Structures are given as structure tokens and as C-alpha cells.
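#struct-queue
[09:14] JT: dropping the first one here, sequence first, then the C-alpha cells:
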Amino acid sequence: MTVKTNHQREKRTNVIRWIARIWGAFVFIVAVFIIMAYAGNWMRTGVADPYAVEDYPPIENLPPIFMFLSALGLGIAWRWEGWGGGVALLFQLATLPVLLIHWPLWEDFPRFLIAPYGVWLIVIIPSILFLVCWQRSR
């Protein structure tokens, strides 16, 4: 009876692992494409984003940087689930206070559910799934 239960538990863990891997790979690939686009534009024009507004608060740079570092953590999680998932989760948790302070959710409620909070959710969910797989396989 326990052999079957352990086999079912391992099977469920593998399903969760592959959901996290596919989702995390999607986030990682999108982040790499965005960085490549900015780098390519910077090399061609000398400016990473020619449409950037002047004199914006520097705190607006933190969420994209933290999201990119989270995407790197999701890439690392393919090999080391606990470490990569922990890195991604740590940077996403560091992003949340910045989002709540600079873009309060209650200010423009329906729009902020898509961006930036929707993007935050898209990145944090696979990191949690990686940590769940790491915990279950220990």
C-alpha cells in the first residue's frame, strides 16, 4: 500500500515540477528576449529605451531589475530547485513592497491587476512551485 502511495506522490511531484519548469522557462525566455532587445537598441542607437521619460523616479528601475533576477533564479531552478526557487521568491518578495509603495493597488484597481501586479504573479508562481517540488522530493 505505501509503495503505491509513494509512487503516486512522486508522480504528482513530477507533474508539479514540469509545470514549474515549463512556466519558468517561458518567463526566463521572455526576460532574455527583453534584455536582448534593450541591449540591441542600446548598441544601435546609444540609448536602451529612446521612449523613456526624463526625470522619472529611480525607484521605477527596481521592479524590472528584480523581475529579471527572479527570471534568472527560475533558470537556475532547472538544475537546483531549492536554490533557484528561493532566489526567485526572494527577489519577488523584495519587489512587492516597492510595488505597493510606488503603485498602490487601490489607486487604479483594475489596471494594476494586469501590470505590474499581474506580471509579479506570473513570475512568483513558478518559484513557489519549484520550492514545493524541492520540499516534496527531500
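[09:21] JT: and here's the second one, same format:
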Amino acid sequence: MARGGKTVLTDVGSVEVKVLRDVAGTFEPQIVHLALAVTVEGNRDILGIWAGAEGGEGVKHWLRVLTELKNRGVEDVLMLICDGLKGLPQAVEAVWLRTVVQTCVIHLLRNSFRYAARKDWDKIVKALKPVYTAPMAEAAEERFLEFTESWGTKYPAIVKLWSDAWAEFVPFLAFDVEIRKVICSTNAIESVNARIRKAVRARGHFPTEAAALKCVYMALMSLDPTGKGRKRWIMRWKAPLNAFQIAFEGRLAPANN
């Protein structure tokens, strides 16, 4: 990996597949995790895919995954974006002590819709926007209290969802608007996951774990065949890179400097 194995962003996501588990024909859900990195040069690289039983992830699992990545050359990660994956923040702290763990705001909003009636979705988004666009963490907390007063009685599960994720939600509020844009609006791994889900749905289920991973791998290999998407991303990368350079001064320099 370029620049001494440094990545600016690493986004960890997951998709569900159904794998045959016994001769009786029982198919059980299995989670496939993906790690996508944005390098200093603006390249988006898939670092790996890992399969595991549903709910099977935890600190030990993520320690193995992150240690594998570090041993393969990922020396430093400025920010790691994830969606409430159990045990991941603790594992990150053990492997890359200075990495900022950030909950994906887009996923947090989408998960909120699970607990709200469809007719209230637009109102929920409007009420939460002052929270995730607040100028600082203190202001976000004030806006969240207002949201709780307005919607907490009707949708207490949404309040709990955001409260439980708060420690990993607020870090990006301390950064420049260009960094916020990358985290909030340029949800790099979501388009990858959407392509994988489409391929998985077309198959329905898989006879083995290896077959499921092969399907995921083939979907990844079909991404951006012309390279136009990569070129557009790199062109837009300069402004965020400058913001990261200032916010994480010294971390992006080559290792031999």
C-alpha cells in the first residue's frame, strides 16, 4: 500500500447471505464483512472479505481481522467508519490506538426508519438534521434533547438507537466540512454493498460458504469496469485530503520521513 501503508478512511460494512448448514436443507443466515479503504492517493481498495455466522462477531473476531490487515501492511488508519458492529471499536483501539472510530451517519438514519411509521420518515429526517449538522458535539446534544422531547414518547427505540451510538457518532462533528462530506454524503461502501446484495439476491442461497464468498468476490470484480468512477473519486479527493492533512498533522507523511 502506498505511503507506508497509511489509509485515510476505512469503511467496514456487512451483507447477509444464506448458506446450507445441514443435509436436511436448512439455510442459515451468515454475515459477510467487507473492509474498504481510501488511501492517501484517493484510491478506493477492498482490503478483504470475511464470513462468519450471524451475530458471531465480537472483539476477538475483529482483533483477528484488524491484526491480519496490519500484518499485511496497513500501518495506520485515520478514521474507521462502521455501522454498530459489536466489538469493533474496542479492537480498533487495540490495533490502531490513534484511529477515530465513527458510526456511519447514513446508516444511523436508515436504521431509525425501522422504528418509525412511513408517514413520519420525512419528519424524522427533518428533526434529526440539526443533530448531525450541528457545529459541535455540545450543540448536537442540545438538538438531540429537543428531538427526544418531540419524538421520544412516540418512538423511544429511535432515541435509544442514537443514545447507544452517541460515543461513535459525535467524533466527526469536530472536523472540517470537507471531512464531514466524505463521511456523510460519500458513503463509499454502500454502493459496493448494494451491488453485492443484488448479486446475492439473484442466487437466493448458497450450498457452501465458499460458494457465497465466490459470489461476493465476483460482484466486487465487476465494479467500475471502465475505471471512470475511480477517476471521478480521485478528482474530488483533493479538498478532503487537505482537510485530513490539517486535522491529522504528521500522520500522512511517508514512514521514512
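[09:30] RK: nice, looked through the second one.
[09:31] RK: The two ends are 16 Å apart (CA to CA).
[09:31] JT: good to know. Residues 188-203 form the longest helix (16 residues).
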